[in-house]
Design brief:
Blueprint lengths: L2 E7 L6 H11 L5 E8 L2 H10 L4 H4 L6 E7 L5 H13 L12 H7 L5 E4 L6 H10 L3 E4 L6 H13 L4 E2 L5 E4 L2 E4 L6 E8 L2 H14 L3 E6 L12 H12 L5 E6 L4 H14 L3 E6 L15 E3 L3 H13 L3 H5 L6 H12 L8 E6 L2 H15 L3 E2 L19 E4 L3 H4 L10 H11 L4 E9 L8 H18 L6 E6 L8 H9 L4 E3 L2 H12 L6 H12 L2
Parallel strand pairs: 4-5, 5-6, 9-10, 9-11, 11-12, 12-13, 14-16, 14-17, 15-16, 17-18, 18-19
Antiparallel strand pairs: 1-3, 2-3, 7-8
Helix pairs in contact: 1-4, 6-7, 8-11, 13-19, 14-19, 16-17, 17-18
Length: 538
């Protein structure tokens, strides 16, 4: 029987990435079966409970406290393990770059710097960002929970000075060919992207690159920019900048549903004041209808998949068909694969479970599922009547965005720390009604160093649970990345393929196959035909 101990360190803080790294090192301590070092948030306590690592001491911890938890086989190993954990916590950091402790010092050392990445608690962002703007520095604002009025103020202030505030909540940008924050290494080219969706920018830029196209600039303006409280300030400035950029010939706009008033403003600007070719991908049930006089220059799509396809088509012209084949599957191939998966299922296996780390990919899948499957439950649903009662417990068709706050409060994002998804995959495998499990695997800077490898153990455990129960559990995955990424695409895909995971070049194609397999293809032909056309261009 294993022994568990918690030690609480009051008012002791390290950021979630540091704690994840320490937790991984702690698991290598002699005699330790499992370990975790987390802040005492309710989310983390629930996770410790599920791991069997929570004791009364940890349960009583406050949010500002740190909890050290270890599980060992021999009770005599508890205290030495905790002592070693405390050593890991207090050892000095090995800096790989010089640290600066105020903006003046940093800007004095780098007087030519023209871009700063800011990641501070949202309520403090305005003060810091304004100082940078006053010094003529563009800002990529990574922070969440920036007050709406602060975002609107900063973007107006920046725009008046010819500067950009990308974000807030901007997880991704590609500036001058350099990946900023959660971004992939993609080919340079003539397609510019303005995106109010982080993983949306990642998916579209990656697919364009994998098809053989390239990105000039990728501007992550944050999801709030296209809401009426901001009014598209940075979206319009981004369009103006790319219109003036001689390296850009095609411009792609990507976003979850904008506010209607702001959407109308942006579309009116594109229609009346631009000359380049455009792809408009405003994810949502309704698709913008292109004005007849603009057809051939402006295209609208309902999926990230088609946004990439259309952008490559506009960029490459006659060469595009062969390029697009690199990221596309034929209708026969998709339907055949769905039938093959369905043939492996038992009658009671009828529900799809999606375990996502990317919010925009979750949303794209939800749109497809809503049309093919009807209602789909989620912790972040399109229709509030399908809100999960418990985000940790799936019901019928379920898509979970593991990057939402209930999973990330006080801990690293699941793109960095896959612990929550590992546990959830094993739980889904225990449900005899699950037909398929699907997931995104996000590569690039900022992400886990080996996201596919991190899932191998849980995949094996999940498959073993199903086999022991006399059934199969098909697992589907889309790896969003390139061979230029720090975690090369081919290596990551091979790790998953060796475990029997079925791989897809795009998220939208994976979503369609999952729905067709779970329903055994019993979807009205007119509905299926419409979805295949509108989301996949088939």
């Amino acid at each position: 029987m294993p022994f568990v101990k918690n030690v609480v360190k009051g008012n002791f803080y390290k950021d979630s990435l540091q704690l994840m790294q320490i937790s991984e090192e702690a698991k290598k301590i002699a005699g330790v079966r499992d370990a975790a070092v987390v802040m005492g948030t309710s989310t983390n306590k629930e996770l410790l409970e599920r791991l069997g690592l929570l004791t009364k001491e940890g349960r009583d911890a406050r949010e500002e406290d740190m909890v050290l938890a270890v599980m060992v086989e021999d009770e005599g190993q508890l205290d030495p393990a905790i002592s070693r954990l405390e050593e890991l916590l207090t050892r000095p950091a090995q800096a790989k770059a010089r640290a600066y402790y105020n903006l003046d010092e940093a800007l004095s050392a780098m007087p030519d710097a023209n871009l700063a990445v800011v990641s501070v608690p949202g309520e403090h962002a305005k003060e810091i960002v304004k100082k940078l703007l006053d010094r003529g520095v563009h800002v990529h604002l990574f922070s969440d929970h920036v007050p709406h009025e602060d975002e609107a103020y900063l973007k107006k202030y920046a725009s008046e000075r010819g500067l950009f505030v990308l974000g807030p909540g901007a997880g991704t940008s590609i500036i001058g060919g350099k990946a900023i924050a959660f971004a992939n290494v993609v080919n340079r080219g003539d397609i510019g992207i303005v995106a109010g969706a982080g993983t949306g920018l990642q998916e579209v830029s990656v697919l364009i690159s994998r098809a053989g196209g390239g990105i000039s600039e990728g501007l992550g303006i944050g999801g709030g920019d296209l809401k009426d409280y901001v009014g598209g300030i940075m979206a319009l400035d981004g369009i103006r900048a790319l219109e003036a950029d001689p390296m850009t010939s095609v411009i792609c706009l990507v976003s979850k549903p904008p506010s209607p008033k702001t959407l109308e403003k942006v579309i009116s600007f594109v229609e009346a004041q631009t000359r380049k070719k455009y792809v408009l991908c405003f994810l949502g049930r309704e698709k913008y209808e292109v004005n007849e006089r603009l057809r051939g220059r402006v295209f609208a799509t309902k999926s990230l998949h088609l946004a990439a396809v259309r952008a490559v088509g506009l960029s490459a012209g006659e060469r595009a068909e062969g390029m697009i084949e690199r990221i596309s599957m034929s209708r026969d191939r998709l339907e055949g694969l769905a039938s093959e998966i369905a043939s492996r299922l038992k009658p009671e296996q009828k529900y799809v479970r999606g375990l996502y780390t990317g919010g925009t990919l979750t949303y794209e899948t939800m749109l497809i599922f809503t049309e093919l499957l009807g209602g789909v439950y989620s912790n972040a649903p399109i229709d509030d009547s399908f809100k999960l009662k418990d985000s940790y417990t799936s019901f019928e068709h379920t898509l979970v965005d593991l990057g939402e706050e209930e999973f990330t409060a006080g801990r690293a994002h699941p793109m960095i720390d896959p612990t929550v998804r590992k546990l959830r995959l094993v739980e889904e495998a225990k449900d005899k009604t699950v037909a398929v499990v699907m997931m995104d695997v996000m590569l690039g800077y900022g992400s886990n160093r080996d996201p596919a490898g991190a899932m191998v153990g849980p995949i094996r455990e999940a498959v073993a649970i199903a086999v022991k129960d006399g059934r199969e559990l098909p697992i589907l995955a889309h790896v969003c990345g390139t061979d230029l990424d720090p975690q090369p695409l081919r290596e990551q895909e091979e790790k998953l393929a060796r475990e029997g995971v079925i791989l897809f070049p795009t998220n939208a194609q994976m979503a369609v196959v999952a729905a067709l397999a779970a329903t055994r293809g019993q979807i009205p032909k007119d509905v299926k035909d419409r979805v295949l056309k509108e989301y996949l261009g088939l």
